[in-house]
Design a protein that fits this description.
The chain has 393 residues and is α/β, with parallel strands linked by helices. The protein has one domain: FAD/NAD(P)-binding domain, CATH 3.50.50. The chain contains 15 helices and 18 strands. The strands form four sheets. Strands 5-4-13-14-15-12-16 form a seven-stranded mixed beta sheet, with helices on both faces. A six-stranded mixed beta sheet has the order 7-2-1-11-18-17. Strands 8-9-10 form a three-stranded antiparallel beta sheet. α1 runs parallel beside α10 and α10 packs antiparallel against α11. It is globular. The chain starts with a strand and ends with a helix. 46% of the residues are buried.
Length: 393
């Protein structure tokens, strides 16, 4: 196989995971990331089941992830006086292993930085497919041509917009926004990584969570699509404060702290719906292709999708027409685990009756069955052992 060149947009989770496998199979990889450096912090993410673990073990990163794991967080839902109403187990929200997103990104970056070209502080502005490949223009860098381009740049993917069409064609707004703020206590590696407890309080269409391993604060609230700049932290703080004005419990204290946090991230909750994840010489992986905000499978889907895409390209000796068709077929089926779920409706029911029903459901056998269904779905793929297949050729 000749050395095909691949440009990957996004240095979060899916991008470095794909870069790892592509380099291993002999591809020349460039990763472009609009941030100035690997992004630290962020909420905790998780992996669950034998499929996720198999991919991570084949990458040689499982032990590092385990060493950097957080403790799972039980969420205790309370009323305005702080009295317990229901419990959502950390075994449900934290999978088999939970790790801060920034720690995971750093691990994957370290495993690829010496072998792949990383370009930070830049982004793609144009894609033109030619007989030689894909001609790419950048916001700051010199234009270049690559054999293939992969968008691993999240639910608001620039690559998807350029190669497939506007975001509104593929991303469905789920009627809610979420905000994470304040570093998790486990962002400090000296802090014991033990099981934690977070406390959550609901009002119709709103949820506020304080503490736990994912972040110091999490807000989730119902709202139509809002107009604001995603890099304007003051605007994001104002939006949260406006939607939580007048709510009791610990919310006034939380909003006072929110005004002081530098690490605030507000975004809409959306679901990506696509019939295919490839177009010509361009492919999508991770949230850009099959994201469903807070759906519980995003990180695992990103890592498995990267593994499958790279493996199929290697098996096809770089023939993207063959590999992309196989990738579409495999991941369309597996990505159904993201499903039509809406975490916003579950976590922040729109009525007081809905909140009471959710609390009852958390203590019922139905919730146990739903948890088992999620565990089974995470493994519902015939995962090929690409390294072994390629080694045997």
């Amino acid at each position: 196989m000749r050395h095909h060149s691949v440009l990957v947009s996004g240095a979060g989770i899916a991008g470095p995971a794909l870069a790892f496998w592509l380099h291993r199979y002999g591809f020349e990889v460039t990763v472009v990331e609009r941030a100035a450096a690997p992004r630290p912090g962020g909420q905790a993410v998780d992996f669950k089941g034998r499929t996720h673990r198999a991919v991570l073990e084949r990458m040689g990163v499982w032990e590092e992830i385990w060493e950097h794991r957080t403790g799972a967080s039980d969420v205790v839902f309370v009323d305005e006086r702080g009295s317990r109403l229901a419990l959502m187990s950390g075994d449900f929200t934290g999978g088999d292993v939970e790790i801060l997103r920034g720690d995971l990104a750093e691990i994957l970056y370290r495993h690829t930085a010496d072998d792949c070209e990383y370009v930070f502080g830049d982004s793609i502005t144009g894609l033109t497919e030619t007989a030689e490949g894909v001609h790419v223009t950048f916001e700051r860098g010199t234009e270049r041509t690559f054999d293939l381009v992969v968008g691993a740049d999240g639910i608001h993917s620039r690559v998807r917009h350029l190669a497939f069409g506007p975001e509104r064609q593929f991303v469905r707004h789920l009627g809610h926004y979420y905000c994470v703020a304040g570093a998790s206590p486990w962002s400090d590696s000296s802090t014991p990584r033990e099981r934690a407890v977070a406390y959550g309080h609901n009002a119709p269409g709103r949820l506020a969570i304080s503490g736990g391993s994912k972040a110091q604060q999490l807000y989730l609230f119902a709202a139509p699509e809002l107009a604001y700049a995603r890099d304007d932290l003051d605007a994001q703080r104002r939006i949260v404060a406006e939607h939580y004005a007048g709510l009791g419990w610990e919310v006034p204290r939380m909003l006072a702290e929110l005004a002081e946090f530098d690490d605030v991230y507000l975004d809409s909750m959306g679901q990506v719906r696509m019939d295919r994840y490839t177009a010509g010489r361009v492919a999508l992986v991770g949230d850009s292709a099959y994201g469903n905000t807070l759906g519980g499978f995003g990180t695992g889907l990103a890592v498995v999708g990267a593994y499958v895409l790279a493996g199929e390209l290697a098996l096809a000796d770089g023939d993207h027409t063959v590999a992309f068709a196989r990738y579409d077929e495999i991941m369309r089926r597996y990505a159904k685990i993201a499903g039509n779920s809406n975490a916003g409706r579950f976590l922040a029911p729109s009525t007081a009756i809905g909140i009471r029903l959710r609390n009852w459901f958390l203590g019922s056998r139905l919730f146990t069955l739903m948890t088992k269904y999620g565990d089974n779905a995470a493994n519902d793929i015939d995962l090929r052992d690409y390294p072994a297949l390629l080694a045997a050729r």
